Amino acid sequence: MRLVVILSPEVKAFLRTTSDECMVIATDGLWDVLTNDEAAKIALKVLQKKRGSKNAAQVATNYLLRFATQQR
C-alpha cells in the first residue's frame, strides 16, 4: 500500500440550516470506508441514544473511529 500526503486538502463549503442535526468532519481514513450517508446515519443514531449527555459528540466520534479502523 502506498500512502500519499497532499499539501492542499479537499475542502467543501455547505450552508448550514436549523434542520441540520450534526456535522461529520473527518479525514480519508473515515471516508475510505464509509459514504457520507453511512457516516451521518451512524453519527445520528449514536447522538440520539446519548441525547442530553454532555459527551454525546465524543461518544459518536469514538464510535465512528472504531468502526472505520475495524473496516481497514
UniProtKB/TrEMBL annotation:
Name of the protein in its database record:
PPM-type phosphatase domain-containing protein
Protein species of origin: Centaurea solstitialis (yellow star-thistle)
User: What Gene3D superfamilies does this protein map onto?
Assistant: PPM-type phosphatase domain (3.60.40.10)
SUPFAM superfamilies found in the cross-reference section: PP2C-like
A single Pfam family it belongs to is PP2C
Tell me where on the tree of life, at the top rank, the source sits. Answer: Eukaryota
| Domain PPM-type phosphatase as annotated: residue spans | 4-66
